[in-house]
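Supplementary Methods, section 5.1.

A reviewer requested that the exact input to the structure prediction be made available. We therefore reproduce it here, unchanged from the version used in the analyses.
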Amino acid sequence: MEVRLVTPVCNTGYGMVGLNILLGLQRQGHSVQLVPRGEIVCTEAHQPYIQQALQTSVTEAAPTVAIDQLAPDTAELFPGKALKVLYTIFELDTFTADEMTWLHFPDHVMVCSQWASNVLQKNGLPADRLMVVPLGVDANVFSATSVAPVDGETHFFATGKFEMRKGYDFLAAVFAQAFSPNDAVRLTLHAWNPFLDDAYNQVWVDLFKKTPMAARVEISRERFRSQTALSNLMTSADCGVFLSRAEGWNLGLLEMMAMGKPVITTNYSGHTEFATPANALLVEIPEVEPAKDGVFFNGQGNWARLDRPQAAQAIGHLQTIHQLKQSGQLPPNQAGLATGQQFSWDNAAIQMADQLQAAMP
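The structure derived from this sequence is encoded token-by-token as follows.
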């Protein structure tokens, strides 16, 4: 089928989603016209496919899928006259009146999880205008790796830009409570927030460096320009830790699963689409609280409440992984490997095309 895809193609979350959806649709044999949002940033290997999509023209009858955040210019994302579909990703459970107006402009709204669909329905968007198309992982990049040697440190890894939503304040506290400086553990953070200045990022660095575990924490300031570089960093880790308060999807969590790594995460929001007791050590979230961080969120919606019971669970999970690693009994995450295979970008493209075809007049 023909598809007009309006999306950023770059190193941001939306940019990576747009690139991989484009590639997935092309692999499935669909004719895709790319309408880029902003500057295109990609690897040399992807350039021929992007050039092909830039040079492709589709008819007026082709549906338009716009992958972007909700904004006042949402209507401008749809240059075509046919079916209009907004694919948007969000983390909180409440929308403003303006946001609901923008959500009603397209014919359909596409989201990546049933959690997100439920949220939109509770906010007044009819179920028959919603489509659920899960995101994916590139198994050619994030593939199974060998288990790390028993005699090394237990290496924990976290990725996702520094912000309160990602739970880095909570991670700093529970890591310091779970271990002592004499324990053979290490925590690596790939979390530098490229959208804010160094002073903002340094506040988060200090949060970790002022704990007794400071010497056991490594913080990368690098913003990787390729998924391969990120996977190389993940390869050396024994376990991924994603103690977020709210997520639209959580690409890093799925990528660690696809590599067969044990993971620890919260049982709330978008990643509940694929994170289960079978493939993750879950921190249960019975309560939410107003989302306030003084930077991005002002209490409009809610996110997971991380309190003492959640800290106790997270500490227990961290210590369990460490004990298993040091005793040589830490197995690969076989259920996570299966999850990575299930949630591929080809699967995302197939589901998107099927739902677009079904919605066509």
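The mean pLDDT is 94. These observations are discussed further in the main text.
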